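Protein record
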Amino acid sequence: NQIGDEGVRHIAIALESGKCVLTKSNLSGNQIGDDGIFHLATAIKSGQCSLTQLYLYENIIGDEGARHMASAIESEKCSLIMLGLGANRIGDEGARYLATAIASDIRLLTELNLESNQIGDEGARHIFTASNSGQCKLKTLYLNHNRIGYDGACHIATAIERGQCSLNQLELRQNAIGNSVGEVISQALHQRQSIRVVMVHYVTAQPRNAEELKALLMLSSRCRWTDVVQAIVLAATFETKTTADPWMDDLLEIVI
């Protein structure tokens, strides 16, 4: 649809009327921008809005819209548990606003989707600093298809190593991390056994040698079995004969 900011303004009026009992709203793909988010945020903060799930994928929300939504998230009257802001235009500044909100001790949000935005290393730093605040209740975070690189991976690893990271599911598909994340994050996971689920799909990673492939496979062995299977596919397409290496035999034994 093409509801736009004006259409959202009318929806927001209904949400804060005190008569609306809607708990889930999907407004994805509607050309909603920062002004529209301002209206939604106002409704959420009113204390009359009953929404617990809000999906705003594929709109035109930028950093200013993220700022408005962050103010709603950290409101004591916000009831949101799940928030989808994927496929928008949120960058590092917007990530900073959202990070401040999720570090608040009064918000309820446990799942946040920020995939397909413009978040880089600095944004990752803000978010993962917040995840270690001790007050953050966020459990699931999607950061697929952003611009997180090696420095961002280091911030993620640091958050995990500190042992207060609230997350138990993290998705980082299609970033600029590449193979470097294998060594950085796998070391952090090795130190913190309590973090069981970290999903890192190496869609763009192209191992250049046996050592890089080993790093990918070792990290995958700490993740979900679907990731292990994907890593095995990488191994199968890797031109160098790596199956002669003992570590490959060990991994195949674990999977089998």
